């Protein structure tokens, strides 16, 4: 069943190039999958740290509320005028709410741990421990990141390779319309007949037979040539669309970095001021200063805890955004 075909028009060379381009696309897709896996793992790790910090904050809040409740109950029993039964009830409500939040944060922390464990190939037992603090961002994004960096993205490299593969297959399909010269083992029964294959009359008849065969396909080869060219056009359009999407992801990540960085600065000040207000309200109420009531304490505590929780969430968002930028650029800037 052995056969040999003379590559008269370069059709076989085109197919060989197309296969090589398919291999390049497969390598690029593997690199893209590996990069995506690394990014997903890094994001999951940051989410676990953030969830642990939220759990610690919830536990700290619970301790603070329990301490405040003890003070309120002590003042109420001591008969301090500005302490009412309502204050005790509100304090107990706060403690119950904080206890519920601790359970909720614990569940979120365990879910984040299980997600990371699955990525690491471990049983999702929620036993993985992470660092106490989120990683620090090293350096700011430089102004004027070269657009050429996007070209190294593995998914775009795979898309370019598919353009080359479909282009070579389109050329091969077009050349398939031309007559070819092929020899097979079945063409020769002996050495004498094999030698006749290279005689002029035998070559002419072989080429004529192949030409006749190509003409008698009912237009199938022509249709395949047009389809191959259409597949190449589609690959070009896919690459153009993927490139636009890549630039959109880069622009979005850079814009998010700028906005989140500014927000973090404002939020840091908010946390500082809310913490000062919380301490002042607790001190005034504990000392029985006139005009101080439990509602002021509860409101100051609510604002301080919300600000601390938002700061944890915002820092995690900045890290997630930086990872997205790494993915969008196909590597570090």
Element pattern in H and E: EHHHEHHHH
Question: In terms of per-residue confidence, which ranges show pLDDT below 50 for 5 or more consecutive residues?
Answer: none
What is the approximate shape? rod-shaped
Helical element count? 7
Write down how many β-strands occur, each being a DSSP E stretch of 2 or more residues.
2
Looking across the biggest beta sheet, what order are the strands in?
1-2
What's the end-to-end separation, in Å? 55 Å
Major sheet characteristics: 2 strands, antiparallel
Helix content: over 70%
Strand proportion, as a percent range, falls in: under 5%
Structural class: mainly alpha
| Oligomeric state of this protein | single chain
What this model shows, in words?
The chain is an all-alpha fold and 333 residues long. Helices cover 75% and strands 2% of the residues. It has helices at 11-77, 85-119, 154-175, 191-196, 200-215, 220-286, 294-329; strands at residues 3-6, 181-184. It has a two-stranded antiparallel ribbon with strand order 1-2. α1 runs antiparallel to α7 (294-329) and α3 runs antiparallel to α6. The mean pLDDT is 87.
Outline the secondary-structure elements:
Elements: E1 3-6, H1 11-77, H2 85-119, H3 154-175, E2 181-184, H4 191-196, H5 200-215, H6 220-286, H7 294-329
Antiparallel strand pairs: 1-2
């Amino acid at each position: 069943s052995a056969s040999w075909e003379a590559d008269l028009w370069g059709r076989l060379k085109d197919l060989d190039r197309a296969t090589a381009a398919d291999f390049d696309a497969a390598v690029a897709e593997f690199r893209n999958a590996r990069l995506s896996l690394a990014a997903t793992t890094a994001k999951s790790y940051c989410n676990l740290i953030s969830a642990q910090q939220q759990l610690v904050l919830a536990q700290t809040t619970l301790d603070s509320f329990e301490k405040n409740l003890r003070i309120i109950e002590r003042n109420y029993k001591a008969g301090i005028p500005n302490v009412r039964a309502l204050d005790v009830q509100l304090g107990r409500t706060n403690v119950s709410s904080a206890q519920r939040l601790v359970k909720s944060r614990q569940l979120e922390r365990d879910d984040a741990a299980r997600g990371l464990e699955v990525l690491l190939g471990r049983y999702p037992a929620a036993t993985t421990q992470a660092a106490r603090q989120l990683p620090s961002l090293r350096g700011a994004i430089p102004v004027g990141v070269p657009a050429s960096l996007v070209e190294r993205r593995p998914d775009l490299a795979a898309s370019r390779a598919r353009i080359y593969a479909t282009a070579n297959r389109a050329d091969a399909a077009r050349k398939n319309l031309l007559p070819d010269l092929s020899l097979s083992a079945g063409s020769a029964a002996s050495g004498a007949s094999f030698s006749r294959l290279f005689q002029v009359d035998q070559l002419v008849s072989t080429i004529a037979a192949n030409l006749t065969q190509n003409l008698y396909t009912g237009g199938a080869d022509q249709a395949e040539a047009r389809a191959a060219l259409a597949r190449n056009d589609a690959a070009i359009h896919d690459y153009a669309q993927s490139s636009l999407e890549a630039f959109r992801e880069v622009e979005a990540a850079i814009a998010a970095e700028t906005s989140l960085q500014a927000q973090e600065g404002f939020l840091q000040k908010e946390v500082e001021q809310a913490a000062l207000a919380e301490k002042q309200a607790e001190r005034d109420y504990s000392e029985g200063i006139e005009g101080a009531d439990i509602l002021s304490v509860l409101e100051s505590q609510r604002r301080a805890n919300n600000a601390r929780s938002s700061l944890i969430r915002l820092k995690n968002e900045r890290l997630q955004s930086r990872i997205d930028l790494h993915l969008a650029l196909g590597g570090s800037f």
